[in-house]
Amino acid sequence: MRVLVGIGNPGRNYVGTRHNIGFYILDNFAHKLNLDFSPAKSDFWQVESSFDTFHFLLIKPTTYVNNSGLVIKYLLEKYDIKSDDILVIYDDVNLDLGNIRIRQSGSDGGHNGIKSIIYNLQNDKFPRIRFGINAEENDSDLADFVLSKFSNDEIKIIDNKLPLIYDLLKEFIFNGYGKMLDCYSKQTKNKTSNLSQNED
Questions:
Q1: pLDDT one-digit tens code per residue, 19-34
Q2: Residues that are catalytic
Q3: Among 12, 86, 110, 140, which residue has the fewest nearby CB atoms (within 10 Å)?
């Protein structure tokens, strides 16, 4: 079984904010599959489903970003799964809006949600998708910036990336991190090649 976790804050006030890009991505993924989130416990919402025989969970913790690790630790223990079967999707203020990076392990990079996960798992070896949320002109306080809402133009940029994200999430569910990384490399390489051809 694979578990996909989107990082974000619960409540209406946080809908559409930069820190909630993980929730936004999983909501879109579930919508495309005609699935709905439901409360599983007091501290997360979930979707439980399958592609053929490939069972998966979509998880949105309601512990707020800074305590995201509590939910992931609980899921690992409940389902007796390894950390490399969990994919964490979250915002990265150090990446330009819409840029995507994939990693299998690494430091928290200053993200408190990832810091909480590393602390609770006592290791940093879990796959993750970092989605850039930074704006070209950003002189805001970091805490205020990540809790600010995307503009309509920014949402268009994000939505243009959702088909790629959809493919990556499906690939992870079917085949795990390695094949997901191959899918990402192939698609981004093709896009770069197409851009080069258009410039010729």
A1: 999 999 999 999 999 9
A2: 19
A3: 12
